[in-house]
Design a protein that fits this description.
By secondary structure, the protein is an alpha+beta fold. The chain has two domains: about 5-115; about 125-220, no CATH class. It has seven helices and eleven strands. A five-stranded antiparallel β-sheet has the order 4-2-1-3-5, with helices on both faces. A hairpin with a 3-residue loop joins β6 and β7 (about 140-150). α3 packs antiparallel against α4 (about 105-120). The longest helix has 19 residues, at about 225-245. The termini are far apart. Residues about 225-235 and about 240-245 have low confidence and may be disordered.
């Protein structure tokens, strides 16, 4: 049975990934080519996960069939949650090729946490949220994040320090940062990722981002809380007042 590599790559388009295959000995060359040249007119490709498996041709076909409804025409691009695909791939028997410094169990746990965080992000009211922290040998980090219908965007002008943290480096791929300043709005999958991108450290974003009145956004993780209902009450009250006027 022929061995080869199944891989997942993120693209510059949020929510769009590439699921492909390559011979083991061609993996590095294939990754470099795609990262430098893009695929099917889509740029900004970045490797996210790769595993060497038996019968890799058949397994790639199986994956394409499973996610066929999310497939972009007849390409290897899919409009689907990358963490869902990674969760599935970590269940395959085989040798993990990328990331090199994490086990399959760690990758699976990270993907599971990312999906949970993405689901919980939908509980956060639309609006702008703030990050402020001091980092040794750098100074003050200040950043702003916008939540709109569960979509997370780090706003341009945010101060982002340099970092060699593996997660921060991965998550910052495609972010346009010059002289430690984000010069273009950047979308990401969750508030946790936004916290890691901004801080350059493996932080809990729910305990770092704050509302305008200084509350950590962790207050929104369950909608059965006093703060949540107070906001909803104010929204309904303001709506009623406007209608009455």
């Amino acid at each position: 049975m022929a061995k080869g590599i199944i891989y997942v790559m993120k693209t510059v388009v949020p929510g769009l990934i590439k699921i492909g295959k390559t011979a083991t000995e061609q993996f590095e060359n294939r990754m470099r080519f795609l990262e430098n040249n893009g695929y099917n007119n889509v740029t900004g490709l970045k490797r996210e996960f790769a595993i060497e498996v038996e019968e890799y041709d058949k397994k790639e076909v199986m994956l394409h069939d499973i996610f066929n409804k999310s497939r972009v025409l007849n390409s290897e691009l899919f409009a689907i949650d990358e963490d869902l695909v990674i969760q599935l791939l970590t269940s395959f028997e085989g040798r993990q090729i990328y990331p090199e410094n994490e086990t399959k169990e760690q990758v699976f746990a990270e993907a599971t946490e990312n999906r949970q965080n993405a689901a919980e992000t939908a509980l956060i009211p639309n609006g702008e949220y703030y990050f402020k922290s001091n980092k040794r040998n750098f100074g003050t980090i200040t950043a702003k994040m916008r939540i709109e219908n569960g979509k997370v965007t780090i706003l341009k002008g945010s101060i982002i320090p340099p970092s060699d943290n593996a997660l921060a480096v991965r998550y910052r791929h495609n972010a346009v940062i010059e002289n430690n300043v984000l010069i273009k709005d950047f979308e990401c999958d969750s508030v946790n990722k936004a916290g890691i991108i901004v801080s350059g450290s493996s932080v809990n974003g729910w305990k770092k981002w704050k509302t305008a009145d200084g509350n950590f956004i962790d207050i929104f993780r369950g909608n059965h809380n006093e703060y949540y209902f107070s906001i909803k009450y104010k929204e309904k009250r303001n709506s009623y007042v406007k209608k009455s006027c």
